[in-house]
Amino acid sequence: MNDTAYALSRSRTLWELAARRADLTPGRPALLQGDRSVSFGELCGKAERVAAGLYGMGVRPGTVVAWQLPTRIETALLAFALARLGAVQTPVIPFYRDREVGFALRESKAEFFAVPGTWRGFDHTAMARRLGARGVFEAYTGDDLPDGDPSVLPEPPADGTSVRWIYWTSGTTSDPKGVLHTDRSLIAGGSCLAHALHLSGDDVGSMAFPYAHIAGPDYTVMLLLYGFPAVMFEHFALPDALEDYRRHGVTVAGGSTAFYSMFLAEQRRQPGVKVIPSLRLLAGGGAPKPPEVYHAVVREMEVQLTHGYGMTEVPMITMGSPHDSAENLATTEGRPPEGMEIRIVDGEVRLRGEAVCRGYLDPAQTAQAFDEDGFLITGDLGRLTGSGHLVLTGRLKDVIIRKGENISAKEIEDLLHRHPAVRDVAVIGLPDEERGERVCAVVETAADTGGLTLPAVVSYLRAEGLSVHKLPEQLELVDALPRNDTLRKVLKHKLRERYSGTVK
Protein backbone atom coordinates (compact mmCIF):
# COMPACT_ATOMS: atom_id res chain seq x y z
CA MET A 1 0.00 0.00 0.00
CA ASN A 2 1.48 3.38 -0.97
CA ASP A 3 1.82 6.30 1.46
CA THR A 4 -1.31 8.10 0.26
CA ALA A 5 -3.46 4.97 0.50
CA TYR A 6 -2.08 4.20 3.94
CA ALA A 7 -2.84 7.72 5.19
CA LEU A 8 -6.38 7.49 3.81
CA SER A 9 -6.88 4.09 5.48
CA ARG A 10 -6.60 5.83 8.86
CA SER A 11 -9.74 7.91 8.16
CA ARG A 12 -12.15 7.80 11.08
CA THR A 13 -15.33 7.41 9.02
CA LEU A 14 -16.37 6.38 5.53
CA TRP A 15 -17.54 9.92 4.82
CA GLU A 16 -14.18 11.33 5.87
CA LEU A 17 -12.46 8.83 3.57
CA ALA A 18 -14.69 9.78 0.63
CA ALA A 19 -14.21 13.51 1.24
CA ARG A 20 -10.43 13.18 1.45
CA ARG A 21 -10.35 11.23 -1.83
CA ALA A 22 -12.59 13.86 -3.46
CA ASP A 23 -10.14 16.58 -2.40
CA LEU A 24 -7.19 14.62 -3.84
CA THR A 25 -8.65 13.61 -7.22
CA PRO A 26 -12.04 15.32 -7.72
CA GLY A 27 -12.19 14.78 -11.48
CA ARG A 28 -11.18 11.14 -11.59
CA PRO A 29 -13.99 8.68 -12.37
CA ALA A 30 -15.15 6.64 -9.38
CA LEU A 31 -18.10 4.59 -10.66
CA LEU A 32 -18.91 3.58 -14.24
CA GLN A 33 -22.16 2.04 -15.47
CA GLY A 34 -23.06 1.67 -19.12
CA ASP A 35 -22.42 5.12 -20.61
CA ARG A 36 -22.74 6.89 -17.23
CA SER A 37 -20.03 7.83 -14.78
CA VAL A 38 -19.60 9.76 -11.56
CA SER A 39 -16.29 11.22 -10.40
CA PHE A 40 -15.00 11.19 -6.82
CA GLY A 41 -15.85 14.86 -6.52
CA GLU A 42 -19.35 14.30 -7.87
CA LEU A 43 -19.84 11.32 -5.58
CA CYS A 44 -19.44 13.54 -2.53
CA GLY A 45 -21.23 16.56 -3.99
CA LYS A 46 -24.30 14.62 -5.11
CA ALA A 47 -24.34 12.53 -1.93
CA GLU A 48 -24.52 15.71 0.15
CA ARG A 49 -27.57 16.87 -1.81
CA VAL A 50 -29.20 13.47 -1.25
CA ALA A 51 -28.28 13.70 2.44
CA ALA A 52 -30.00 17.08 2.63
CA GLY A 53 -33.12 15.60 1.03
CA LEU A 54 -33.09 12.75 3.54
CA TYR A 55 -32.62 15.24 6.35
CA GLY A 56 -35.74 17.03 5.13
CA MET A 57 -37.62 13.70 5.32
CA GLY A 58 -36.62 13.32 8.98
CA VAL A 59 -33.49 11.17 8.76
CA ARG A 60 -31.08 12.12 11.54
CA PRO A 61 -27.84 10.72 12.99
CA GLY A 62 -28.71 7.29 14.38
CA THR A 63 -31.93 6.88 12.35
CA VAL A 64 -32.19 3.31 11.02
CA VAL A 65 -32.67 3.26 7.25
CA ALA A 66 -33.04 -0.02 5.36
CA TRP A 67 -32.44 -0.20 1.63
CA GLN A 68 -32.99 -3.01 -0.85
CA LEU A 69 -31.46 -1.73 -4.07
CA PRO A 70 -29.56 -3.20 -7.04
CA THR A 71 -25.94 -2.44 -7.91
CA ARG A 72 -26.32 1.07 -9.34
CA ILE A 73 -24.63 4.45 -9.06
CA GLU A 74 -27.77 5.70 -7.28
CA THR A 75 -27.37 3.02 -4.61
CA ALA A 76 -23.84 4.19 -3.85
CA LEU A 77 -25.04 7.81 -3.69
CA LEU A 78 -27.73 6.88 -1.16
CA ALA A 79 -25.28 4.86 0.94
CA PHE A 80 -22.79 7.74 1.09
CA ALA A 81 -25.60 10.20 1.82
CA LEU A 82 -26.58 8.11 4.83
CA ALA A 83 -22.91 7.89 5.85
CA ARG A 84 -22.73 11.72 5.65
CA LEU A 85 -25.67 11.97 8.05
CA GLY A 86 -24.37 9.33 10.44
CA ALA A 87 -27.53 7.26 10.04
CA VAL A 88 -27.59 3.51 10.75
CA GLN A 89 -28.12 1.74 7.45
CA THR A 90 -29.14 -1.85 6.90
CA PRO A 91 -28.62 -3.07 3.31
CA VAL A 92 -30.83 -5.95 2.15
CA ILE A 93 -29.93 -8.13 -0.84
CA PRO A 94 -32.37 -7.24 -3.67
CA PHE A 95 -33.23 -10.90 -4.36
CA TYR A 96 -34.66 -11.40 -0.85
CA ARG A 97 -38.42 -11.61 -0.52
CA ASP A 98 -41.11 -11.30 2.18
CA ARG A 99 -39.69 -13.67 4.80
CA GLU A 100 -36.13 -12.33 4.84
CA VAL A 101 -37.07 -8.69 4.21
CA GLY A 102 -39.82 -8.72 6.83
CA PHE A 103 -37.41 -10.20 9.36
CA ALA A 104 -34.75 -7.54 8.62
CA LEU A 105 -37.25 -4.68 8.91
CA ARG A 106 -38.67 -5.96 12.19
CA GLU A 107 -35.37 -6.80 13.85
CA SER A 108 -33.61 -3.58 12.82
CA LYS A 109 -36.67 -1.41 13.64
CA ALA A 110 -36.06 0.48 10.40
CA GLU A 111 -37.80 3.87 10.24
CA PHE A 112 -37.31 4.28 6.48
CA PHE A 113 -37.06 1.76 3.63
CA ALA A 114 -35.64 2.55 0.17
CA VAL A 115 -36.73 0.25 -2.68
CA PRO A 116 -36.28 0.18 -6.48
CA GLY A 117 -39.99 0.06 -7.32
CA THR A 118 -40.62 -2.75 -9.78
CA TRP A 119 -37.27 -4.35 -10.58
CA ARG A 120 -36.73 -7.40 -12.78
CA GLY A 121 -40.46 -8.11 -12.76
CA PHE A 122 -40.94 -7.94 -8.99
CA ASP A 123 -42.80 -5.08 -7.26
CA HIS A 124 -40.66 -4.18 -4.25
CA THR A 125 -42.88 -1.23 -3.32
CA ALA A 126 -45.90 -3.50 -3.08
CA MET A 127 -43.93 -5.93 -0.92
CA ALA A 128 -42.86 -3.10 1.39
CA ARG A 129 -46.49 -2.00 1.78
CA ARG A 130 -47.54 -5.60 2.35
CA LEU A 131 -44.98 -5.92 5.14
CA GLY A 132 -46.11 -2.68 6.78
CA ALA A 133 -42.71 -1.02 6.29
CA ARG A 134 -42.34 2.56 7.52
CA GLY A 135 -41.06 5.48 5.46
CA VAL A 136 -41.08 3.65 2.12
CA PHE A 137 -39.53 5.56 -0.80
CA GLU A 138 -38.17 4.60 -4.19
CA ALA A 139 -34.51 5.28 -5.01
CA TYR A 140 -33.83 3.62 -8.35
CA THR A 141 -33.01 6.62 -10.57
CA GLY A 142 -31.40 9.99 -9.95
CA ASP A 143 -34.83 11.60 -10.19
CA ASP A 144 -36.12 9.32 -7.40
CA LEU A 145 -33.41 10.25 -4.90
CA PRO A 146 -34.25 12.87 -2.26
CA ASP A 147 -32.67 16.26 -2.95
CA GLY A 148 -31.96 19.32 -0.83
CA ASP A 149 -29.64 22.18 0.05
CA PRO A 150 -26.53 20.86 1.86
CA SER A 151 -26.37 24.03 3.97
CA VAL A 152 -29.04 22.54 6.26
CA LEU A 153 -26.88 19.57 7.18
CA PRO A 154 -25.31 19.09 10.61
CA GLU A 155 -21.59 18.44 10.91
CA PRO A 156 -20.46 15.06 9.52
CA PRO A 157 -20.02 12.27 12.08
CA ALA A 158 -16.57 12.18 13.66
CA ASP A 159 -16.83 8.86 15.51
CA GLY A 160 -16.01 5.82 13.39
CA THR A 161 -16.46 3.22 16.12
CA SER A 162 -20.23 3.52 16.63
CA VAL A 163 -22.42 0.87 15.01
CA ARG A 164 -23.76 2.38 11.77
CA TRP A 165 -24.25 -0.74 9.64
CA ILE A 166 -26.45 -3.83 10.05
CA TYR A 167 -25.70 -6.55 7.51
CA TRP A 168 -27.56 -9.83 7.26
CA THR A 169 -26.19 -13.35 7.08
CA SER A 170 -27.74 -15.57 4.44
CA GLY A 171 -30.12 -17.35 6.81
CA THR A 172 -30.06 -20.52 4.71
CA THR A 173 -30.97 -22.82 7.58
CA SER A 174 -32.66 -20.39 10.01
CA ASP A 175 -33.50 -16.71 10.35
CA PRO A 176 -30.71 -14.37 9.25
CA LYS A 177 -28.45 -12.78 11.86
CA GLY A 178 -28.08 -9.01 11.99
CA VAL A 179 -24.33 -8.34 11.95
CA LEU A 180 -23.20 -5.05 13.52
CA HIS A 181 -20.42 -3.08 11.81
CA THR A 182 -18.79 0.31 12.27
CA ASP A 183 -17.24 2.58 9.69
CA ARG A 184 -13.83 1.63 11.02
CA SER A 185 -14.46 -2.12 10.75
CA LEU A 186 -15.48 -1.69 7.09
CA ILE A 187 -12.49 0.54 6.34
CA ALA A 188 -10.18 -2.02 7.96
CA GLY A 189 -11.66 -4.80 5.82
CA GLY A 190 -11.31 -2.84 2.57
CA SER A 191 -7.77 -1.83 3.50
CA CYS A 192 -6.83 -5.50 3.81
CA LEU A 193 -8.06 -6.12 0.27
CA ALA A 194 -6.25 -3.06 -1.09
CA HIS A 195 -3.01 -3.96 0.69
CA ALA A 196 -2.96 -7.50 -0.66
CA LEU A 197 -3.77 -6.83 -4.32
CA HIS A 198 -1.10 -4.16 -4.96
CA LEU A 199 -3.33 -2.10 -7.26
CA SER A 200 -2.79 1.45 -8.51
CA GLY A 201 -4.70 4.47 -9.77
CA ASP A 202 -4.32 3.11 -13.32
CA ASP A 203 -6.48 0.06 -12.61
CA VAL A 204 -10.16 -0.36 -13.48
CA GLY A 205 -12.18 -2.63 -11.21
CA SER A 206 -15.64 -4.17 -11.43
CA MET A 207 -18.58 -4.87 -9.14
CA ALA A 208 -20.50 -7.85 -10.46
CA PHE A 209 -22.03 -8.67 -7.06
CA PRO A 210 -24.90 -7.05 -5.12
CA TYR A 211 -23.81 -3.71 -3.66
CA ALA A 212 -25.91 -4.64 -0.61
CA HIS A 213 -23.51 -7.53 0.11
CA ILE A 214 -20.69 -6.94 2.61
CA ALA A 215 -18.38 -6.92 -0.44
CA GLY A 216 -19.94 -3.57 -1.45
CA PRO A 217 -18.17 -1.37 1.12
CA ASP A 218 -15.15 -3.68 1.07
CA TYR A 219 -14.59 -2.93 -2.62
CA THR A 220 -15.62 0.74 -2.38
CA VAL A 221 -13.03 1.39 0.32
CA MET A 222 -10.37 0.03 -2.03
CA LEU A 223 -11.49 2.45 -4.78
CA LEU A 224 -11.29 5.37 -2.37
CA LEU A 225 -7.84 4.39 -1.10
CA TYR A 226 -6.29 4.17 -4.57
CA GLY A 227 -8.49 6.51 -6.58
CA PHE A 228 -9.43 4.21 -9.46
CA PRO A 229 -12.90 3.45 -10.85
CA ALA A 230 -15.06 0.34 -10.93
CA VAL A 231 -17.67 -0.74 -13.46
CA MET A 232 -21.01 -1.54 -11.80
CA PHE A 233 -23.23 -4.35 -13.13
CA GLU A 234 -26.88 -4.19 -12.15
CA HIS A 235 -27.35 -7.68 -13.52
CA PHE A 236 -24.31 -9.85 -14.21
CA ALA A 237 -24.53 -12.48 -16.93
CA LEU A 238 -22.03 -13.74 -19.45
CA PRO A 239 -21.47 -13.21 -22.30
CA ASP A 240 -23.68 -10.07 -22.17
CA ALA A 241 -21.50 -8.30 -19.58
CA LEU A 242 -18.32 -8.73 -21.64
CA GLU A 243 -19.06 -5.63 -23.72
CA ASP A 244 -18.77 -3.35 -20.68
CA TYR A 245 -15.65 -5.14 -19.40
CA ARG A 246 -13.99 -4.51 -22.74
CA ARG A 247 -15.34 -1.00 -23.30
CA HIS A 248 -14.08 0.29 -19.96
CA GLY A 249 -10.81 -1.65 -20.05
CA VAL A 250 -11.35 -3.57 -16.82
CA THR A 251 -8.06 -4.79 -15.36
CA VAL A 252 -9.37 -6.46 -12.20
CA ALA A 253 -12.48 -8.68 -12.15
CA GLY A 254 -13.86 -11.52 -10.07
CA GLY A 255 -16.30 -12.08 -7.25
CA SER A 256 -16.11 -15.72 -6.19
CA THR A 257 -15.15 -19.16 -7.46
CA ALA A 258 -18.35 -19.36 -9.52
CA PHE A 259 -17.37 -16.14 -11.30
CA TYR A 260 -13.90 -17.53 -12.10
CA SER A 261 -15.55 -20.58 -13.64
CA MET A 262 -17.91 -18.44 -15.72
CA PHE A 263 -15.03 -16.36 -17.11
CA LEU A 264 -13.09 -19.54 -17.79
CA ALA A 265 -16.03 -21.03 -19.70
CA GLU A 266 -16.16 -17.92 -21.91
CA GLN A 267 -12.41 -18.13 -22.51
CA ARG A 268 -12.78 -21.74 -23.66
CA ARG A 269 -15.15 -20.64 -26.41
CA GLN A 270 -12.20 -18.94 -28.13
CA PRO A 271 -8.96 -20.54 -26.95
CA GLY A 272 -5.94 -18.32 -27.50
CA VAL A 273 -7.97 -15.09 -27.78
CA LYS A 274 -8.15 -13.20 -24.47
CA VAL A 275 -11.78 -12.89 -23.44
CA ILE A 276 -11.07 -9.48 -21.84
CA PRO A 277 -7.90 -8.04 -23.43
CA SER A 278 -7.19 -5.56 -20.60
CA LEU A 279 -7.70 -8.06 -17.78
CA ARG A 280 -4.65 -8.93 -15.70
CA LEU A 281 -6.11 -10.14 -12.39
CA LEU A 282 -9.07 -12.15 -11.13
CA ALA A 283 -9.68 -11.70 -7.41
CA GLY A 284 -12.41 -12.69 -5.02
CA GLY A 285 -13.52 -14.87 -2.15
CA GLY A 286 -16.76 -15.97 -0.57
CA ALA A 287 -16.48 -19.67 -1.41
CA PRO A 288 -13.77 -22.36 -1.49
CA LYS A 289 -11.42 -22.30 -4.49
CA PRO A 290 -10.25 -25.70 -5.78
CA PRO A 291 -6.55 -25.62 -6.79
CA GLU A 292 -7.44 -26.83 -10.29
CA VAL A 293 -9.55 -23.72 -10.89
CA TYR A 294 -6.52 -21.54 -10.07
CA HIS A 295 -4.26 -23.46 -12.43
CA ALA A 296 -6.84 -23.45 -15.25
CA VAL A 297 -7.38 -19.67 -15.02
CA VAL A 298 -3.66 -18.90 -15.06
CA ARG A 299 -2.98 -21.35 -17.87
CA GLU A 300 -5.92 -20.61 -20.15
CA MET A 301 -6.81 -16.98 -19.44
CA GLU A 302 -3.19 -15.88 -18.96
CA VAL A 303 -4.05 -13.75 -15.93
CA GLN A 304 -3.21 -14.01 -12.26
CA LEU A 305 -5.80 -15.23 -9.74
CA THR A 306 -5.77 -14.27 -6.06
CA HIS A 307 -8.36 -15.61 -3.66
CA GLY A 308 -9.27 -14.53 -0.15
CA TYR A 309 -11.28 -15.39 2.91
CA GLY A 310 -14.02 -13.24 4.37
CA MET A 311 -17.52 -13.40 5.80
CA THR A 312 -20.32 -11.03 6.71
CA GLU A 313 -18.88 -10.77 10.23
CA VAL A 314 -15.35 -9.99 8.95
CA PRO A 315 -15.40 -8.66 5.37
CA MET A 316 -11.76 -9.47 4.68
CA ILE A 317 -9.64 -11.81 6.79
CA THR A 318 -6.88 -13.00 4.45
CA MET A 319 -6.09 -12.39 0.79
CA GLY A 320 -3.68 -13.88 -1.68
CA SER A 321 -1.13 -11.49 -3.17
CA PRO A 322 -0.07 -11.42 -6.84
CA HIS A 323 3.47 -11.77 -5.48
CA ASP A 324 2.73 -15.05 -3.68
CA SER A 325 4.05 -18.31 -5.07
CA ALA A 326 1.83 -20.37 -7.38
CA GLU A 327 1.65 -23.05 -4.69
CA ASN A 328 0.36 -20.62 -2.08
CA LEU A 329 -2.10 -19.02 -4.50
CA ALA A 330 -3.47 -22.42 -5.50
CA THR A 331 -3.73 -24.04 -2.09
CA THR A 332 -4.18 -21.26 0.51
CA GLU A 333 -6.43 -18.25 1.19
CA GLY A 334 -3.48 -15.87 1.55
CA ARG A 335 -2.15 -14.15 4.64
CA PRO A 336 -3.85 -11.83 7.13
CA PRO A 337 -2.92 -8.14 7.13
CA GLU A 338 -1.32 -6.37 10.04
CA GLY A 339 -3.87 -6.11 12.83
CA MET A 340 -5.76 -9.32 12.04
CA GLU A 341 -5.05 -12.06 14.57
CA ILE A 342 -5.80 -15.66 13.65
CA ARG A 343 -5.87 -18.34 16.29
CA ILE A 344 -6.48 -22.04 15.54
CA VAL A 345 -8.26 -23.81 18.43
CA ASP A 346 -8.85 -27.55 17.98
CA GLY A 347 -8.63 -27.03 14.22
CA GLU A 348 -11.16 -24.17 14.23
CA VAL A 349 -10.34 -20.66 12.97
CA ARG A 350 -10.86 -17.79 15.42
CA LEU A 351 -10.35 -14.09 14.68
CA ARG A 352 -9.63 -10.84 16.47
CA GLY A 353 -8.96 -7.42 14.93
CA GLU A 354 -10.41 -4.10 13.86
CA ALA A 355 -12.24 -5.61 10.86
CA VAL A 356 -14.23 -7.98 13.09
CA CYS A 357 -17.87 -6.99 13.65
CA ARG A 358 -19.16 -5.78 16.99
CA GLY A 359 -21.46 -8.77 17.29
CA TYR A 360 -25.11 -9.31 16.44
CA LEU A 361 -28.41 -7.54 17.00
CA ASP A 362 -29.31 -10.38 19.36
CA PRO A 363 -27.05 -10.12 22.46
CA ALA A 364 -27.41 -13.87 23.09
CA GLN A 365 -25.94 -14.60 19.65
CA THR A 366 -23.09 -12.19 20.39
CA ALA A 367 -22.29 -13.95 23.67
CA GLN A 368 -22.05 -17.30 21.89
CA ALA A 369 -19.94 -15.97 19.01
CA PHE A 370 -16.87 -14.78 20.93
CA ASP A 371 -14.54 -16.68 23.23
CA GLU A 372 -13.18 -15.44 26.56
CA ASP A 373 -10.27 -13.67 24.82
CA GLY A 374 -12.53 -11.75 22.43
CA PHE A 375 -11.86 -13.94 19.39
CA LEU A 376 -14.74 -14.52 16.96
CA ILE A 377 -15.52 -18.24 16.65
CA THR A 378 -15.96 -18.75 12.90
CA GLY A 379 -17.00 -22.38 12.58
CA ASP A 380 -14.42 -22.75 9.79
CA LEU A 381 -11.67 -25.37 9.97
CA GLY A 382 -8.13 -24.57 8.94
CA ARG A 383 -4.43 -24.36 9.69
CA LEU A 384 -1.63 -21.82 9.32
CA THR A 385 1.46 -22.68 7.28
CA GLY A 386 4.99 -21.81 8.31
CA SER A 387 4.82 -18.71 6.08
CA GLY A 388 1.64 -17.50 7.78
CA HIS A 389 -0.74 -18.46 4.95
CA LEU A 390 -4.14 -19.81 5.93
CA VAL A 391 -5.35 -23.14 4.58
CA LEU A 392 -9.08 -23.76 5.01
CA THR A 393 -10.03 -27.41 5.28
CA GLY A 394 -13.80 -27.06 5.54
CA ARG A 395 -16.66 -25.97 7.75
CA LEU A 396 -17.23 -27.50 11.15
CA LYS A 397 -20.78 -28.24 9.96
CA ASP A 398 -19.36 -29.59 6.69
CA VAL A 399 -17.40 -32.39 8.31
CA ILE A 400 -18.94 -35.78 7.51
CA ILE A 401 -18.79 -38.24 10.40
CA ARG A 402 -18.82 -41.75 8.96
CA LYS A 403 -18.50 -44.61 11.47
CA GLY A 404 -16.93 -42.19 13.95
CA GLU A 405 -14.29 -40.94 11.46
CA ASN A 406 -14.20 -37.26 10.46
CA ILE A 407 -14.13 -36.71 6.68
CA SER A 408 -13.47 -33.33 5.04
CA ALA A 409 -15.92 -32.64 2.21
CA LYS A 410 -13.48 -30.09 0.77
CA GLU A 411 -10.70 -32.67 0.38
CA ILE A 412 -12.93 -34.86 -1.81
CA GLU A 413 -14.26 -31.85 -3.75
CA ASP A 414 -10.76 -30.63 -4.57
CA LEU A 415 -9.83 -34.04 -5.98
CA LEU A 416 -13.02 -34.33 -8.05
CA HIS A 417 -12.51 -30.86 -9.52
CA ARG A 418 -9.51 -32.34 -11.37
CA HIS A 419 -11.71 -34.85 -13.20
CA PRO A 420 -12.38 -33.71 -16.80
CA ALA A 421 -16.05 -34.67 -16.62
CA VAL A 422 -16.69 -32.55 -13.49
CA ARG A 423 -17.72 -28.93 -13.97
CA ASP A 424 -18.54 -28.43 -10.29
CA VAL A 425 -19.17 -30.66 -7.30
CA ALA A 426 -20.55 -30.56 -3.77
CA VAL A 427 -19.84 -33.36 -1.31
CA ILE A 428 -22.33 -33.79 1.52
CA GLY A 429 -23.05 -36.14 4.37
CA LEU A 430 -26.44 -37.90 4.39
CA PRO A 431 -28.09 -39.70 7.33
CA ASP A 432 -27.35 -43.43 7.35
CA GLU A 433 -28.53 -45.94 9.92
CA GLU A 434 -25.45 -48.14 9.62
CA ARG A 435 -22.71 -45.55 9.18
CA GLY A 436 -24.15 -42.48 10.92
CA GLU A 437 -23.52 -40.52 7.73
CA ARG A 438 -22.62 -41.65 4.23
CA VAL A 439 -20.58 -39.65 1.70
CA CYS A 440 -22.56 -38.35 -1.26
CA ALA A 441 -20.98 -36.52 -4.23
CA VAL A 442 -23.36 -34.26 -6.18
CA VAL A 443 -21.75 -33.51 -9.54
CA GLU A 444 -22.52 -30.86 -12.12
CA THR A 445 -21.10 -32.50 -15.23
CA ALA A 446 -19.11 -30.76 -17.93
CA ALA A 447 -20.53 -30.62 -21.47
CA ASP A 448 -19.73 -33.37 -23.99
CA THR A 449 -18.01 -35.61 -21.44
CA GLY A 450 -20.47 -38.48 -21.17
CA GLY A 451 -22.11 -39.82 -18.03
CA LEU A 452 -20.27 -40.49 -14.79
CA THR A 453 -20.90 -43.56 -12.69
CA LEU A 454 -20.22 -44.19 -9.00
CA PRO A 455 -17.70 -46.99 -9.74
CA ALA A 456 -15.81 -44.66 -12.10
CA VAL A 457 -15.72 -41.88 -9.49
CA VAL A 458 -14.55 -44.29 -6.78
CA SER A 459 -11.87 -45.71 -9.06
CA TYR A 460 -10.65 -42.21 -9.92
CA LEU A 461 -10.46 -41.14 -6.27
CA ARG A 462 -8.64 -44.34 -5.28
CA ALA A 463 -6.08 -43.64 -8.01
CA GLU A 464 -5.69 -40.12 -6.59
CA GLY A 465 -4.77 -41.66 -3.24
CA LEU A 466 -7.96 -40.91 -1.26
CA SER A 467 -8.34 -43.11 1.82
CA VAL A 468 -10.87 -45.90 1.47
CA HIS A 469 -13.05 -44.69 4.35
CA LYS A 470 -13.54 -41.34 2.58
CA LEU A 471 -14.78 -42.74 -0.75
CA PRO A 472 -18.31 -41.66 -1.80
CA GLU A 473 -21.05 -44.23 -1.42
CA GLN A 474 -23.57 -42.23 -3.42
CA LEU A 475 -23.34 -40.20 -6.64
CA GLU A 476 -25.96 -37.76 -7.91
CA LEU A 477 -25.67 -36.00 -11.29
CA VAL A 478 -27.32 -32.59 -11.75
CA ASP A 479 -27.52 -30.04 -14.55
CA ALA A 480 -26.83 -27.21 -12.09
CA LEU A 481 -26.04 -27.06 -8.38
CA PRO A 482 -28.35 -24.80 -6.34
CA ARG A 483 -26.69 -21.46 -5.56
CA ASN A 484 -27.50 -18.23 -3.78
CA ASP A 485 -27.90 -14.95 -5.68
CA THR A 486 -25.04 -13.01 -4.10
CA LEU A 487 -21.67 -14.69 -4.65
CA ARG A 488 -23.16 -17.84 -6.21
CA LYS A 489 -22.31 -20.09 -3.26
CA VAL A 490 -23.54 -23.67 -3.49
CA LEU A 491 -26.46 -24.22 -1.11
CA LYS A 492 -25.58 -27.56 0.45
CA HIS A 493 -28.57 -27.52 2.77
CA LYS A 494 -30.83 -27.77 -0.29
CA LEU A 495 -28.87 -30.80 -1.51
CA ARG A 496 -29.18 -32.45 1.90
CA GLU A 497 -32.93 -31.79 1.86
CA ARG A 498 -33.20 -33.21 -1.67
CA TYR A 499 -31.21 -36.39 -1.13
CA SER A 500 -31.64 -37.23 2.58
CA GLY A 501 -34.58 -39.48 1.80
CA THR A 502 -32.76 -41.45 -0.90
CA VAL A 503 -31.36 -44.84 0.00
CA LYS A 504 -28.35 -46.25 -1.81
Categorize the overall geometry.
Answer: globular
Share in β-strands? 25-35%
Helix content: 25-40%
Strands of the biggest beta sheet: in what spatial order? 2-1-12-11
Question: In total, how many beta strands?
Answer: 26
| CATH arch. level architecture of the domain at 8-28 and 35-184 | 3-Layer(aba) Sandwich
Low-pLDDT sequence parts: none
Class inferred from helices and paired strands = alpha/beta
The whole-angstrom Rg is 23 Å
What kind of sheet is the major sheet?
4 strands, mixed
CATH topology title of the domain at 8-28 and 35-184: Rossmann fold
Number of helices: 16
Average pLDDT, rounded to a whole number, is 93
Distance between the termini: 54 Å
CATH class of the domain at 8-28 and 35-184: Alpha Beta
How is this fold's topology laid out?
Elements: H1 3-9, H2 14-24, E1 29-33, E2 36-39, H3 40-57, E3 64-67, H4 73-85, E4 88-91, H5 98-108, E5 112-115, E6 118-119, E7 122-123, H6 124-130, E8 136-138, E9 163-168, E10 178-182, H7 183-197, E11 205-207, H8 215-226, E12 230-232, H9 242-247, E13 252-255, H10 257-267, E14 281-284, H11 291-301, E15 304-311, E16 314-319, H12 326-331, E17 341-345, E18 348-352, E19 359-360, H13 363-369, E20 376-384, E21 390-395, E22 399-402, E23 405-408, H14 409-416, E24 422-432, E25 436-445, H15 454-463, E26 474-478, H16 492-499
Parallel strand pairs: 1-12, 3-4, 3-5, 5-8, 11-12, 13-14, 14-15, 25-26
Antiparallel strand pairs: 1-2, 6-7, 9-10, 10-19, 15-16, 17-18, 18-20, 20-21, 22-23, 24-25
Helix pairs in contact: 1-8, 2-3, 3-4, 7-8, 10-11
